[in-house]
Amino acid sequence: MEYNLKDKYILQLNEKEKALETRDLNIFYGEKQALFDGNLQFERYKITSLIGASGSGKSTFLRSLNRMNEGVADVKGSILYRGIDINSPKINVYEMRKYIGMVFQRPNPFSKSIYENITFALKENGIKDKEKLAEIVETSLKQAALWDEVKDDLNKSALALSGGQQQRLCIARAIAMKPDILLLDEPASALDPISTAKIEETLLELKEKYTLIIVTHNMQQASRISDYTVFFHLGNVIEYNKTKNIFTNPKIKLTEDYISGNFG
């Protein structure tokens, strides 16, 4: 079936609700364009899921939100955070990433102790006080729902943890920097169902303090945990709406066919 990719429905938010906004975002890998005119607004303290078939542009879009495509892709357009275009060449990327953290698809803990995984970046940023570090370690691990499992083994290697525990440690490591926004690229795709459920519970608790934007290939996961959902297709944002509307009453036929499993 042929679809008109100009058929779109993009929700607009009030200015005061916005945590992050992209305007006319176009992303190129060399000559190949991977994203076309991405215009999206993300609400504070909500979970927004990005869904779409493999190669639809959702991970490319997500990674651009804290400049993770730097040196890999050419990102044109504006990414507005607190009124500042963080896609500007004048921006200190490392400073910006303190505010917009990222958790990747596969757990990537450092080959250090659990404690050092969380304190490494903090120390690099000048926090040396041992009591303060211990307090941040405990708070971050509690927020990532890992504290009770590791509190007696903080000096154990992070690599000895299970995959699900490693991923929650990576979440703890990201939130130790106290970001405003947390980007997650398929954070549960490499995990078993029990670990996935724990990650989902963790994310639902985290949205009280953080704005979460998550790429997921799992539509059930998107419908379970997200407030908003964005559907990408062939590098185009086709539909962005409240999750319940996307899954029960999509505005665009292409979205309906994807949700129904007619392709993807």
From TrEMBL:
Any one Gene Ontology BP term: phosphate ion transmembrane transport
Alphabetical UniProt keywords: ATP-binding, Cell membrane, Hydrolase, Membrane, Nucleotide-binding, Phosphate transport, Translocase, Transport
The keyword Phosphoprotein appears for this protein: no
Gene3D superfamilies: P-loop containing nucleotide triphosphate hydrolases (3.40.50.300)
EC numbers: 3.6.3.27
Key word Metal-binding present: no
Pfam families: ABC_tran
All residue ranges annotated as the ABC transporter domain in the record: 20-259
SUPFAM superfamilies assigned: P-loop containing nucleoside triphosphate hydrolases
GO cellular component annotations of the record: membrane
Enzyme class: hydrolase
GO MF annotation, one: ATP binding
UniProt xrefs under PANTHER family: ABC TRANSPORTER I FAMILY MEMBER 17 (PTHR43423), PHOSPHATE IMPORT ATP-BINDING PROTEIN PSTB 2 (PTHR43423:SF10)
Matches recorded under NCBIfam families: 3a0107s01c2
Protein name: Phosphate ABC transporter, ATP-binding protein
